Amino acid sequence: MNVPLAAKAVPIRATWRDYLALTKPRIISLLLFTTLTAMFVAADRLHKVTPLLFLAVALGGYMAAGAANTLNMIYDRDIDELMKRTAKRPTVTQIIPVSHALVFAIVLAAGSVALLWSAANLLTALLAMAGLAFYVMVYTMLLKRRTRHNIVIGGAAGAFPPLVGWAAVAGHLSPMAWLLFGIIFMWTPAHFWALALLIKDDYSEVGIPMLPVVRGEKVTVTQIVGYTVLTIVTTLLPLTLHTTGAVYLIAASILNTAFLVYNLKLYFKPERPQAMAAFHFSMIYLALLFLMLAIDRSILGA
């Protein structure tokens, strides 16, 4: 029998590690990487990205994402309590009371705005807050519990980080910046649904209508392949702007081929090892794609 959240006693005093857990650092790491590499994609040469700006965007971006994740934990604590993988989150165990977590999120968000605005510009700070608002209000509160399209639409929240990095350097958003947004937007469903296949029983138990739960494995893996193809097409669009060179073309070709192979293996054999492999490679894929784009644009001066 589940004990109501309000009835649980606080076993120990919270430490900095508990507050760090509220920010979901493992999830943030890839988002932050796309933020920072986008800075170099926006720069004509490396000297435009000063160490001070780089560190400010890294910290400010982490704070914004951390605030969003904290608010997500606060709102989802009722379902987190029922799933094994989330049952030990600080908002569930109440090591950190909800009121304290809320103050923590507000401080992080305010600190992010102040830092990004002062070190970069207002547009950078506003984009970071737009990503936070989209994740919390659109994905977490509006879509996640209501529709199987939750990750397709709500996944746009994870596409804001490169816009933040771009704006910090350029002060505006160009077509190339929106292509970076588009790459992550198209990549997210294939990435997340591979994970959803692994934890579909958890989602089913708490009534979250993730695609594998409401439409089954076959539809899910078909959609994964479809979004993989859309992702590949989107990654080739920067070439049409004549802003990337041979290094990116070669890297994208290799990575896209591998991305498609992993997801085709999952399509033909939708079992746990294939889903795990596809999920983990999707993260490597995105990180390397953005890294090679940054190298092509900034270091080699495409």
Structure, described:
The protein has 302 residues and is an all-alpha fold. The chain has two domains: 160 residues, Tetracycline Repressor, domain 2 (Orthogonal Bundle); 129 residues, Four Helix Bundle (Hemerythrin (Met), subunit A) (Up-down Bundle), CATH 1.20.120. It contains 15 helices and no strands. α13 packs antiparallel against α14. About 2% of the residues have low confidence.
Helix and strand arrangement:
Layout: H1 16-22, H2 25-42, H3 51-75, H4 77-80, H5 90-93, H6 98-119, H7 122-143, H8 150-154, H9 161-170, H10 175-198, H11 200-206, H12 211-214, H13 217-236, H14 246-268, H15 272-299
Helix pairs in contact: 2-3, 2-9, 2-15, 3-6, 3-7, 6-7, 7-9, 9-10, 10-13, 10-15, 13-14, 14-15
For the report, how would you describe the main beta sheet?
none
- Poorly predicted regions: 5-10
Kindly provide the name of the CATH class of the largest domain: Mainly Alpha
Mean pLDDT: 92
The structural class is mainly alpha
Order of helices and strands: HHHHHHHHHHHHHHH
Shape: flat
| Percentage of β-strand residues | under 5%
Looking at how many chains there are and whether they match, the oligomeric state comes to: single chain
Query: CATH homologous superfamily name of the largest domain?
Result: UbiA prenyltransferase
Distance between the termini: 61 Å
Number of strands: 0
CATH architecture of the largest domain: Orthogonal Bundle
> In the CATH scheme, what's the topology name of the largest domain?
Tetracycline Repressor, domain 2
| Rg from alpha-carbon coordinates | 20 Å
* Total tally of structural domains: 2
Helix percentage: over 70%
Number of helices: 15
